From TrEMBL:
Any one of the GO CC terms: mitochondrial inner membrane
Protein source organism: Cyprinus carpio carpio
Taxonomic lineage from the root: Eukaryota, Metazoa, Chordata, Craniata, Vertebrata
Protein name: Cytochrome c oxidase assembly protein COX11, mitochondrial
Subunit details: Interacts with CNNM4/ACDP4. Interacts with RANBP2.
Function: Exerts its effect at some terminal stage of cytochrome c oxidase synthesis, probably by being involved in the insertion of the copper B into subunit I.
Amino acid sequence: MLLPFLLRGCTAKHYVQQALSSTRLCVNYCNIRGLATSSGQLFLRRTPQRFLNQSRGAKTHKRKHQNQEDDWKKRNKTVLTYIAAAGVGMIGLSYAAVPLYRLYCQASGLGGTAVAGHNTDQVETMKPIRDRIIKVTFNADTHASMQWNFRPQQSEIYLVPGETALAFYKARNPTDKPVIGISTYNVVPFEAGQYFNKIQCFCFEEQRLNPHEEVDMPVFFYIDPEFDDDPRMARVDTITLSYTFFEAKEGQRLPVPGYS
């Protein structure tokens, strides 16, 4: 009786142990599967978000790059506009430079240009500097294309600052056709130009001479008394007034006075 009871107890214990082992295997399997499932879900949950963030970042970078390109294009257009405006302005100034510079030279005596115009009151009231005698010499030239005969009627004149003087040039047209001429002038030394004032002159005015016609052209001028007060003029005792005649043609420009 005892032996069968012991056998039954051992058999029950064996089944219990097998059941516990199966239970442990099942639990372990479930844990592993659950871990895998959690990892998969975590991977599936995070992976799309990361790719989405990367896609958003790429779009943002592309938009920023496009905005920079648009900004650069806008700046380039602005710079090109300024450059074009400056170019047009420089072209306009180049056309106006010669007459404007000539007017400035006539007003200031720069470049050996005699000062245009005069102050009537100054001419009437200025006092000659008798102890400062100056020799004024005269020169005449013609451009290569100019067919006139042009010369001064006197080679030199002596005067003092504050004293008026009158000189003459003679022009003759030896051709068989009318010729229109126009003249420019300068004074040497250049620094003396600001003190050389013309009251009457034939410069920068068109002069028409018929075939074989000859005319006298007067130059009425004076030297400003301030000439004697300028230290730069201390050793200047000779001044040369020079005229050059050009044939007046359409589109032709005269050289700047003092640099002919």
